[in-house]
Amino acid sequence: MINNNNRKEVKMKRILLFTLFIITLMVSGCGDLNGNACEITFPAYKVNQTEYNADAFNITPFKMHITLPQNVYIKNVKDMTLDEKQGGNSMIYACEDKEIYAYIDYGIYKPDKDFTPKENYYRHVLSDWILSSFVNWGSDYTFISQNDKTVVGECEVCIDNHDGSDIITHQGILVYNDELGVYVKIEFESNESDEELEKIAKSIRLDKE
Fold first, then answer.
1. Which residue has the higher pLDDT, 98 or 204?
2. pLDDT tens-digit readout, 135-153
């Protein structure tokens, strides 16, 4: 017969094993306990490839690693409609509760080691977007971090619809890598706190696939 002490010991072991099982499930369910660690491969799709932007697609695919807030996720390309794929080269959407949290896209550039001044190098990387009269990424740039060859900064995205309405401003993150000759720009739909934006920015890394 099993005495009371043995019963209590067996019960305690069962409770301990069950608790460890629950903790394991919680940890394995997310890439980072402080956020949602995501990985995006670019180009994500090629429906927007034309003779004019073919160079942006004829590259070795690369990956962006980013940690987003816990409740934000990357929308699966398979779940995107054709209309959602029409913006930019290979637009990816970060979503929160099925609403757009941020727009993520990539581009290419030619690294220039002789560019001066160095603090304005981002203007060389984003030359096409800085010269655009509709969407301008050249405002209020702030360097955040450099991880290996990946350089990350924050900036203000200015959108002018040229219809008499006020200019719309969004927060943005610019990431570039001279070794790969690629950049990623992230435009946020709504304002994030400076702390959250910097946390996201510092988590980003661009690597070869």
1. 204
2. 888 778 999 999 878 999 9
Q: Locate tokens 């080691």: which residue? A: 113
Q: How far apart (Å, rounded) are the C-alpha atoms in residues 68 and 203?
A: 9
Two structure tokens written together for 190:
């709504």
Amino acid at the residue 40 = I
pLDDT of residue 1: 53
Q: How confident is the model at residue 6 (pLDDT cuts 50, 70, 90)?
A: low
Binned at pLDDT 50, 70 and 90, residue 23 comes out as very low
DSSP the chain: ---HHHHHHHHHHHHHHHHHHHHHHHHHTSSBTTBEEEEEEES---TT--TTTHHHHSS--EEEEEEE-TT-EEPPGGG--TGGG-STTT-EEEEETTEEEEEEEEEE----TT-SSGGGHHHHHTHHHHH-SSEEEEEEEEEEEEETTEEEEEEEEEE--SSSSPPEEEEEEEEEETTTTEEEEEEESS---HHHHHHHHHT-EEEE-
Could you give the CA distance from residue 86 to residue 10 in angstroms, rounded to a whole number? 61
**What phi and psi values does residue 132 have, to the nearest 5 degrees?**
-65, 135
> Is the pLDDT score of 163 beyond 50?
yes
Distance CA 15, CA 199 (A): 37
